[in-house]
């Protein structure tokens, strides 16, 4: 799952070099409605003149098989062969969906990730998890498939909405919590806004790559990267089904981080003082998500579809102290509901 990752001003020239090789028959660029307008102009000078644009609507609700059909139809109509390359220009929805669509077209064409959100630059574009949502469950259909390369240009972040920037920051906090206590401590003191996103991206990518290299297919330590997601995905999936109440992925993960840290305290793995530090940092960035107590049982049920489960056992990733993730900690649906009730009671 190890692909080369190029970060910084050299990323787009390096992409051009990759695309102009004779081994590439045709270049397809996948965008959503926003990245077509706000990101394509920066990329276009680096693309061959005969590239073909494929557009899907923006947003998690379009991370579906139906959007994949749009990609597959265009590739088919344009007679894309196995030497074509799909360039995924967008956030995590475009990079996940584009990677999945490329992996299935003619049993696999190469794709490159060109992430344009903080979330996709620090997390989604790296590590080879691709997929789409299905029947209300997050990433229910997907494959592990490494991109040919990842090209990260932090200048894309200049047009990103602050709410989206914060969403990506949740995955950065997650990385520190599972593997880097010093960075967690330093950054909670500095505060979340920075003028050095490049540094943050480089550190997060390196940390994620180290974990993925040990366990690309998530049979063990890669589950650390799923910290905050057993509860986070349950919240995100539940709210996605309720138009007008949707939470961004990172917002749901931030809530999941608080809930799963609380579960870690219940297991005796994390101290109350550490939980307090985590909550203070998380709520300095994120507002509390809103749900009522009566909904907690229904939200918790979604964890029964978590991909880390073995049979009916929900295996959660927890913290054995800040900076030390620990995976495969069994929890019940009731305990997850209890953690949501704890979150609900918190004053932010
Ligand atoms: N594969 C993985 O390892 C992995 C990791 C984390 C998250 N994810 C997935 O990533 C998805 C979330 O990704 P996301 O937060 O990037 O969401 P997203 O792709 O929906 O992008 C967020 C919004 O920002 C817009 N946008 C993108 N780049 C922009 C830019 N530069 N300027 C202005 N607008 C821009 C998009 O059009 C969209 O409206 C979720 O589906 C999640 O499951 C995958
Ligand atoms: O790369 C990983 O591994 C992760 O778990 C990163 C997560 O941030 C990401 O949201 C991932 O898509 C979750 O995967 P899933 O297997 O829980 O669907
Ligand atoms: Zn995530």
Structural topology:
Layout lengths: L3 E4 L3 H9 L7 E6 H6 L1 H4 L8 E5 L8 H13 L7 E6 L1 H13 L5 E6 L2 H7 L4 E6 L2 E8 L4 E4 L9 H18 L1 H10 L6 H18 L14 H12 L8 H18 L5 H14 L10 H6 L12 E6 L5 E7 L1 H13 L3
Parallel strand pairs: 1-8, 2-3, 2-4, 4-5, 5-8
Antiparallel strand pairs: 6-7, 9-10
Helix pairs in contact: 4-5, 6-7, 6-9, 7-8, 7-9, 7-11, 10-11, 11-12, 11-14
Ligand LNCXM5UN binds next to strand 7 and helix 10.
Task: Characterise this structure.
The protein is an alpha/beta fold. The chain folds into 2 domains: 4-159, Rossmann fold (3-Layer(aba) Sandwich), CATH 3.40.50.1970; 162-345, Dehydroquinate synthase-like, alpha domain (Up-down Bundle), CATH 1.20.1090. Helices cover 46% and strands 17% of the residues. The chain has helices spanning 11-19, 33-38, 40-43, 65-77, 92-104, 118-124, 162-179, 181-190, 197-214, 229-240, 249-266, 272-285, 296-301, 333-345, and strands at 4-7, 27-32, 52-56, 85-90, 110-115, 129-134, 137-144, 149-152, 314-319, 325-331. The strands form 3 sheets. Strands 1-8-5-4-2-3 form a 6-stranded parallel sheet, with helices on both faces. A two-stranded antiparallel ribbon has the order 6-7. A two-stranded antiparallel ribbon has the order 9-10. A hairpin with a 2-residue loop joins β6 and β7. The radius of gyration is 20 Å and the shape is globular. The model has no long low-confidence stretch (mean pLDDT 97). The protein binds nicotinamide-adenine-dinucleotide (NAD), the ligand O=C(O)C(=O)C[C@@H](O)[C@H](O)[C@H](O)COP(=O)(O)O and zinc ion.
């Amino acid at each position: 799952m190890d692909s080369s990752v190029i970060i910084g001003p050299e990323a787009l020239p390096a992409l051009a070099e990759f695309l102009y090789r004779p081994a590439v028959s045709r270049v397809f660029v996948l965008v959503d409605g926003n990245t077509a307008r706000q990101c394509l102009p920066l990329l276009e000078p680096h693309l061959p003149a005969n590239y073909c644009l494929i557009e899907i609507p923006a947003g998690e609700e379009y991370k579906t098989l139906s959007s994949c059909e749009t990609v597959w139809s265009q590739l088919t109509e344009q007679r894309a062969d196995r030497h074509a390359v799909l360039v995924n220009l967008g956030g995590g929805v475009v990079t996940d969906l584009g990677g999945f669509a490329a992996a299935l077209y003619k049993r696999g064409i190469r794709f490159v990730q060109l992430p344009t959100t903080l979330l996709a630059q620090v997390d989604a574009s790296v590590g080879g998890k691709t997929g789409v949502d299905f029947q209300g469950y997050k990433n229910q259909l997907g494959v592990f498939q490494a991109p040919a390369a990842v090209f990260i240009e932090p200048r894309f972040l200049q047009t990103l909405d602050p709410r989206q920037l914060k969403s990506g920051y949740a995955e950065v906090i997650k990385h520190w919590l599972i593997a880097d206590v010093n960075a967690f401590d330093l950054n909670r003191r500095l505060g979340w806004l920075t003028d050095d996103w490049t540094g943050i991206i480089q550190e997060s990518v390196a940390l994620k790559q180290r974990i993925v290299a040990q366990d690309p297919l998530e049979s063990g330590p890669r589950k650390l990267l799923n910290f905050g997601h057993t509860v986070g995905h349950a919240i995100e999936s539940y709210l996605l089904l309720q138009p007008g109440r949707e939470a961004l992925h990172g917002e749901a993960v931030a809530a999941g981080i608080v809930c799963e840290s609380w579960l870690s305290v219940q297991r005796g793995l994390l101290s109350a003082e550490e939980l307090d530090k985590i909550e203070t940092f998380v709520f300095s960035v994120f507002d509390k998500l809103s749900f009522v107590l009566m909904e907690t049982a229904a939200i918790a049920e979604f964890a029964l579809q978590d991909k880390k489960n073995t049979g009916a056992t929900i295996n959660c990733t927890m913290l054995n102290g800040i900076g030390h993730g620990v995976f495969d900690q069994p929890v019940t649906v009731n305990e997850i509901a209890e953690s949501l009730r704890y979150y609900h009671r918190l004053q932010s």
